[in-house]
Design the sequence.
């Protein structure tokens, strides 16, 4: 770890879904007397609570959270919008505390705050239009297969069930004759704060077991009713999300409910695997087993902050 360049420190908590990031983030924020900036791109939306594992009322009351259910699924909200809003909020928070905690498993959004967004060349808009038509007529599988051929590196880290992400990557691949991943991480935006990234992990079997239990709890908590209310808006980008789109297929009477729940678990497992692939690229991340005592994590953080 390099010598600290600033008296402002953002502690970024990352890791796969269901690993315990929320609880750790709250414990850290309490310890440092600070706020939490949420970096989960699906927890931004007011209408999506159960399926996105939004922190409970008790958890939200324990520590001040920002960017939790602050917009509607009807509103377009890009990673660029989040980068702008998050940096503005961080500047405000650093005025009153030299440490802020950020929690979330959306790798692209984490990188947007900690490193800045990558620059991409403009491409012919007709390419995107054609890719959208291909998606409508041939399904998401056609997009997945093309990306796997054109950019296997990005294919292994992106959410392959999100057509918006697939189309964005493919239009760059096709329009530039280069892989989308070749444009990533070319330069890092200078921030006026330091970043310490800590990750939570576990054996894959443990992660998968926690995912299965979480999905069961979501169903018991009313995920099907939440998805039913959103079904009329199922084409919105915000709803191209694991947990909702599988239930939409059940509502379309294409799957049984048991199959839909099984697919939620399977797709969440795949998502967790891709999250780890994304976060493991950052060699500066300090990794902890998910059951590591918070006191041990805080001790490590204090040592790094002092250096």
Sequence:
């Amino acid at each position: 770890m390099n010598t600290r360049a600033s008296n402002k420190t953002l502690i970024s908590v990352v890791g796969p879904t269901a690993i315990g990031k929320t609880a750790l983030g709250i414990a850290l924020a309490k310890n440092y007397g600070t706020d939490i900036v949420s970096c989960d791109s699906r927890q931004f939306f007011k209408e999506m609570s159960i399926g996105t594992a939004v922190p409970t009322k008790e958890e939200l009351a324990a520590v001040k959270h920002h960017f939790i259910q602050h917009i509607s699924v009807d509103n377009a909200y890009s990673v660029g919008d989040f980068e702008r809003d998050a940096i503005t909020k961080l500047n405000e928070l650093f005025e009153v505390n030299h440490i802020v905690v950020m929690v979330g498993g959306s790798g692209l959004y984490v990188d947007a705050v900690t490193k800045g967004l990558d620059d991409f060349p403009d491409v012919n808009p007709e390419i995107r239009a054609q890719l959208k038509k291909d998606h409508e007529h041939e399904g998401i599988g056609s997009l997945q297969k093309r990306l796997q051929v054109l950019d296997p590196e990005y294919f292994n880290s992106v959410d392959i069930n999100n057509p918006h992400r697939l189309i964005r990557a493919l239009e760059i691949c096709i329009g530039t004759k280069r892989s989308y991943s070749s444009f990533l991480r070319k330069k890092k935006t200078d921030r006026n704060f330091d970043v310490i990234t800590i990750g939570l992990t576990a054996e894959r079997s443990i992660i998968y077991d926690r995912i299965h239990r979480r999905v069961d709890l979501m169903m018991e908590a009313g995920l099907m009713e939440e998805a039913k209310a959103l079904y009329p808006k199922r084409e919105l980008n915000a709803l191209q999300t694991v947990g909702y789109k599988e239930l939409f297929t059940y509502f379309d009477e294409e799957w049984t409910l048991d199959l839909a729940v099984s697919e939620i678990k399977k797709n969440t497992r795949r998502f967790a695997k891709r999250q780890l692939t994304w976060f493991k690229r950052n060699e500066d991340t300090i990794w902890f087993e998910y059951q590591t005592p918070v006191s041990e994590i805080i001790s490590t953080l204090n040592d790094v902050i002092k250096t």
